[in-house]
Design goal:
Layout (H helix, E strand, L loop, with lengths): L7 E6 L5 H4 L11 E6 L1 H9 L5 E5 H7 L2 E11 L6 E5 L8 E5 L3 H14 L6 E5 L1 H6 L5 E6 L1 H5 L6 E4 H9 L3 E9 L5 H16 L1 H12 L3 H11 L6 H16 L11 H6 L7 H9 L6 H10 L2 H15 L4 E5 L1 E5 L27 H13 L4 E5 L8 H15 L2 E4 L2 H11 L3 H11 L3 E2 L9 H7 L6 H13 L3 E8 L5 H18 L2 E8 L15 H14 L5 E3 L2 H4 L1 H7 L6 E4 L18 H10 L3 E4 L12
Parallel strand pairs: 1-2, 1-3, 6-7, 6-8, 11-19, 11-20, 12-13, 13-14, 15-16, 16-17, 17-18
Antiparallel strand pairs: 3-10, 4-10, 5-8, 5-9
Length: 634
């Protein structure tokens, strides 16, 4: 429960179709108990996942991803046939589409679209492209269609030559109703009296459907009669036995397709009759080892309760299934920090200096030339180029630098974290795509995953309040992936984050990977806090690192590679990490400035790296940033 004492924190989807279910919750007498806030489907799900809401009227796919949630009986947003507000639209037959721009606010509709299109097209489905609703609609043409949900879908009825109503398509496939959203929360979040409040709100809302429709018509200009029919005929607000069967069917098919964790529909009042059955840890680990997708709740349980040995075995099984050749890769590159000037003042960073500080610097071309030539002489193939957010370095500076590096040294550029890309965009009043297009034209090859820390904004505000939000970080990666750029994903834990925060971070990476397939690898490490940082260390240590990496390998079923973070943990621990899910040993270390500023100074050359890999029982191969082998494994 929230800090507001007895107040029940309630989040609800703000669409027209949801309003009859929360009618009156913001008025007396319910308002003395309920604190109601409306947001997008994705945002209300996030609030439950990150414990900012007790219950939410949220997409059912998000509930499965979070895991171990309960539903309030009797209340849902569903359909028994055509729903009108969840549609795939196109200028040509839906079955011929190669791309589908999808509204990302509801994973339920995205997964339903994928299941329906696979069923209709013998397993074939178009490539997904995440977009805001109006951008998705505007992009329709040729071989690209759009998935449009909620109020925007009602606004475009009849506009396109081809439309597939997903509620109707589900009914035709299964003869079962479809449940799009329901009241969901963690076990114990709702009392009997709270459920009665929701039931009363539903009764009042259903009685006022015409008034709700008319008010929406006045606000949007849509025909009142059409909206009345929508709320009375298209949307079904019950969650009974038939709806439960339809929802369970959706969960089962999505889990079989690898799109959702295995989920059993369970109501709040079920817990009052009998305790929920809990699968044994061995069962969870076995499912994970076989490649089955786990929920966030299951990931939390493994992190908290799984033995170190068992987690290692399960993660190693995942690695062997993905990479059965017994090869561990590494890359010869160099981490080059072009400046230590930064404006974010992260409390965990001992490296940065403010502009004008006597210890601040920007590398000269001469200094860079020496570093880059050493990489070339060592057979290196790229540099990892990152720095602080320097307020005086404009985009032209980066373009000139990239062109110079490409022309003089022919090295790959794994350069600029999402935070730096956003910073350049802010300086130049350019959106992310425009920045990335200019940088790619100048030589950018891929985007490193720096600056992720923990992708939970409560944590980010405490350790780096000036830094971008988790959605902004993910948004840069989404655009980069859509443009064909590949990137890594990272996690720095061990400040104020909790196990739930760390698993939420992994799920956000996994969700974006489902959409874009743009992450090549994942690396994690704990906060290096010895010297010069302004925040105390939280959970850390070798055992936790190995547990966290193992759980990451298990949870990130769609990310191909996991790297061992020997730079922070030491070469010996890096070797052990190869038996805890890692299949990559990262980069040789000519130099490192950021973590070494906090006192961590492990270094290794290519020969030493290969010796470590072989001593751990693997063959070694050099790679590039896309994980193509550059040498034969030996």
């Amino acid at each position: 429960m929230s800090e507001l004492g007895e107040m029940l924190r309630v989040a609800a989807v703000g669409y027209l179709n949801a309003r009859p279910l929360y009618e009156g919750l913001d008025r007396s007498p319910a308002s003395s108990r309920v604190l109601l806030e409306c947001a997008s489907p994705r945002e209300v799900a996030r609030r439950v996942a990150e414990d900012e809401a007790d219950i939410a009227l949220m997409p059912v796919a998000a509930a499965a991803t979070i895991g171990d949630l309960r539903l309030a009986r009797g209340c849902a947003i569903g359909a028994r046939g055509a729903v009108r507000s969840v549609v795939v639209v196109a200028d040509r037959p839906i079955e011929t589409l190669d791309e589908l721009a999808v509204d990302l606010s509801s994973r339920t509709s995205v997964i339903l679209a994928r299941l329906v299109l696979r069923a209709r097209n013998r397993g074939r489905e178009p490539r997904l492209i995440g977009a805001e609703p109006h951008d998705a609609i505007a992009s329709v043409g040729g071989a690209r269609g759009a998935l449009v949900i909620g109020d925007p879908a009602l606004e475009i009825e009849g506009r396109f030559a081809h439309a597939l109503d997903l509620g109707l398509a589900w009914w035709e496939l299964t003869r079962l109703p479809f449940v799009f959203a329901a009241w969901c929360g963690r076990a114990g979040a709702l009392s009997v009296d709270d459920e009665r409040l929701l039931e009363a709100a539903k009764r009042e809302g259903l009685d006022r459907r015409e008034a709700i429709a008319d008010a929406h018509a006045e606000q949007t200009g849509l025909p009142p009669a059409s909206l009345r029919a929508y709320l009375r005929e298209a949307i079904r607000y019950d969650l009974g036995d038939e709806e439960r069967r339809g929802l369970q069917r959706f969960y089962d098919e999505a889990a079989h397709a690898g799109l959702l964790p295995r989920t059993t529909v369970r109501f709040f009042d079920d817990d009052r009759r009998a305790a929920a059955p809990t699968p044994a840890l061995d069962t969870l680990l076995g499912r994970a080892a076989e490649g089955e997708r786990l929920s966030a709740a299951e990931g939390e349980r493994l992190l908290a309760q799984g033995s170190l040995f068992e987690l290692g075995l399960a993660a190693d099984a995942v690695r062997r299934r993905k990479h059965p050749n017994g090869v561990v890769t590494y890359i010869v590159d160099r981490n080059v920090n072009y400046t230590n000037v930064c404006t974010t003042s992260c409390r965990f960073c001992a490296f940065y200096r403010p502009l004008g500080h006597p210890e601040s610097w920007v590398l000269s071309r001469g200094e860079l030339a020496k570093k880059l030539q050493e990489v070339v002489d060592a057979g290196g193939v790229q540099i990892l180029l990152q720095g602080g957010l320097h307020p005086e370095l404009r985009i032209e500076w980066y373009e000139e630098l990239f062109r110079w590096i490409k022309s003089e040294y022919k090295l790959g550029l794994h350069a600029l974290s999402p935070e730096e890309i956003l910073h350049i965009g802010n300086l130049e009043a350019l959106d992310t795509r425009a920045v990335l297009e200019r940088l790619r034209a100048a030589g950018l090859d891929s985007v490193p995953g720096g600056g992720a820390e923990i992708l939970v904004d409560r944590v980010r505000r405490k350790i780096a309040k000036a830094k971008c939000t988790s959605e902004q970080w993910l948004g840069v990666m989404r655009v980069a992936h859509q443009m064909g750029l590949r990137s890594s994903a990272t996690m720095m834990y061990g400040t104020v984050d909790t196990p739930r925060d760390r698993v939420a971070h992994l799920v956000k990476i996994r969700d974006l990977q489902d959409e874009t397939s743009g992450f090549t690898a994942f690396f994690c490490w704990d906060f290096q806090h010895e010297r010069g940082t302004k925040i105390e260390a939280g959970d850390h240590g070798t055992v936790l690192y190995l547990r966290q990496q193992a759980v990451a390998r298990i949870m990130l079923d769609n990310v191909p590679h996991v790297g061992a973070s020997w730079v922070t943990q030491g070469p010996e621990v890096g070797q052990v990490a190869l038996r805890f899910g890692a299949d990559d040993f990262g980069s040789v270390m000519f130099e490192e400035n950021v973590v070494s500023s906090a006192g961590t100074t492990f270094c290794m050359n290519a020969e030493g790296m290969e010796q470590r890999i072989r001593a751990a029982g693997f063959k070694a191969a050099r790679r590039n940033v896309r994980y193509d082998w550059l040498t034969s494994p030996s």
